[in-house]
Amino acid sequence: MRDSAVITGRADLGAIDNTTGEAAFYSHRQPAWHGLGTVTEEAKTSEEVLHLAKLDWQVEKRPLLSMHKGKIGKKIPNRFGTFRDDTGDWLGGLVGNTWTPIQNREAFAFVDELVGGGHVTYETAGALDGGRVVFMSTMSPSITIDPDGAADRIDLYTLFANSHDGRSAAVAVETPIRAVCTNTLDLAVEEAQRTWKIRHTSDALSQLEEARRALGFTERYAAAFEAEATQLFQTAMTNQEFDKLIAQLWTPPAEGARKNLIAAHEERRDRLHHLFAEADTQDNIRGTRWAALQAVIEFDDYFRNVKVPEALTEQEHRNNLAMTALLHDQKNDLKDLAKSLLLAA
């Protein structure tokens, strides 16, 4: 069974694992940027984080048995299920001979060496969907746009996510978050790769040097991202120009369109103009193309219409969507288009 290109999952089920009766989550000193889980005490080593995040369990491959008329038969050749060794729960995996689990402890050791040579501060760690997906994030050196003026800080995280259900590769991704409003700046940067995928094979974690070269932890991505952000910050933008950007991103309703479509467009336009021209989150960058991009991103992160599952609050669902998009390396076409238009103009 081949790994797919990215982590696959369901945003409405992307909840912190509670299989053992305790939340499988660790956060370093303060609430996590994605708003999920709870804060626990500070840990100094990956082994302590592993324990506090309730991730000190392993994945087992077990043979699948045939069944006929209620009777258990022979093993099914070359087919296995994936299970937690602590609870015995099935992790949703149906895998073949070559699929090899990347154990939680191995993943932490890999990230230790990948990011900091064994000296890493973990910001968050945990499991989603009953343990089907395990993640951990570390903070890289931050970027500050216009340090002597606006001082707009962008925090960089290295996020590693691993699936245990056999459906997808593990992924490491560089993730920038704007500190003042926790906007998830999951933007493509042409000059630097931000994602590296690892298939579940017996030598999966032996490719450390290849991963370092591919991702350039973290200098190349940080430098390319900072250059684009600085260019946008140094370019002024008027309310009229921002209105044109809105029309490029969301096509206005045609003449004679239904009233509800016109009302929805006007409501979105008003919200975006408020974020650009009045919101506190733009105070230090007001009137720039960087502020215009942040307004679009903030709208997409917090104000666009979403269908909320009955079991979740709206904020919980938005948090799940943001976390799932990052873990699954989902591209955000709206954000990338907005950035491209602003850089090209």
Automatic annotation (TrEMBL):
It comes from Kitasatospora cinereorecta. It comes from the Bacteria. InterPro entries: DUF932, Phg/plasmid-like_prot. This is DUF932 domain-containing protein. The lineage of its organism: Bacteria, Bacillati, Actinomycetota, Actinomycetes, Kitasatosporales.
